[in-house]
UniProtKB/TrEMBL annotation:
Keywords: DNA-binding, Transcription, Transcription regulation. Pfam families: GerE. Residues 28-93 form the HTH luxR-type domain. This is HTH luxR-type domain-containing protein. One of its GO terms (biological process) is regulation of DNA-templated transcription. Residues 28-38 have a biased composition (Basic and acidic residues).
Amino acid sequence: MSPPARTRGSEPEAGPGPSPARPPVSRGARDLRGLTGPERETLKLVGLGLSNQEICARLHISMPTTKTHIGRLLAKLGARDRAQLVIVAYENGLVG
């Protein structure tokens, strides 16, 4: 006996799959209460489109410190990249 024939669209739907490592960013404003003051200021400057070098000059901090702030922002906010940090800055009214 042969198995029943399948037609297009009759296959079982796939489940949601593995959950992402980080939650999606653009689901409304993020809670920024866990950020330090320098991290919040860095987020604002990223939201304004400043480069790392420009952030260093504006905040009078070193490049490694700037990169540390950005790395911590990515982790704390569940952002995938700098573009998502810009979205978070706008959604939270840091820039606009």
